[in-house]
Amino acid sequence: MSENLFNGQVVVITGAGQGIGYEIARQLCRHGAKTILNDIDEQLATRAAQQIEREGGSCIPITGNAGDSSFVCKMVEEAVRRFGCLNIAIANAGITIFGDFFGYSPEALQKVMSVNLGGSFFLAQAAARQMKTQQDGGSILLMSSVTGHQAHKNLAAYGMTKAGIEMLAKTLVVELSPFNISINAIAPGATVTERTIGDLEYINTWSQITPMGRPAGVSDIANAALFLVSPSSRHITGQTLVIDGGWTSISPQP
Prior knowledge:
Helix content is about 45%, strand content about 15%.
């Protein structure tokens, strides 16, 4: 991939203070993008942006709840104010609230729905409005999960939102294609992030049940994300790319 592939491109990415989102932001900046990096945790957002800047990237942190539609609009406005346009939007923010179906609370359901589905919907909406105004196309990427394809115990609400995200990407093809805006989703499987890097049980379990013999690393997911928002994939839209080392082909439960 060319070091200048995203030169001059302006990106908004949510939930990117660490993990997959951070690695996507880092790689985009390394390839020339200017990035608005969001996280609900101010310390994480600031630290992530500073690290990217130290590596030579252009990255501005912005703290707030990606499930708040008014805040999402402000992020897009900030990208335009700072850099003059918006070319790529990545709805990476999401939350997982495990719970038995029989006792799952309305409050937990609303929280998962608000961030995962609402945050994705309203970032796509705000970004697409700006891209439509610019009349220069753009790319939108949503973050699904293998739980949107295969059942996981105690993740009914989460899996429902992730399946919904994939349908959102498919449906918006009708709305966005006339404006040369592509929209896709990626569905990661088990991935080693800051939360699981020291969890040997997690790593060993997923290594045993993943056909490729290991869980993903954040770079595995980021590489796919960059492809889907790059010029190389401009004729791909409405699709979901599963990145799971083959797990959904056999689907043993952890």
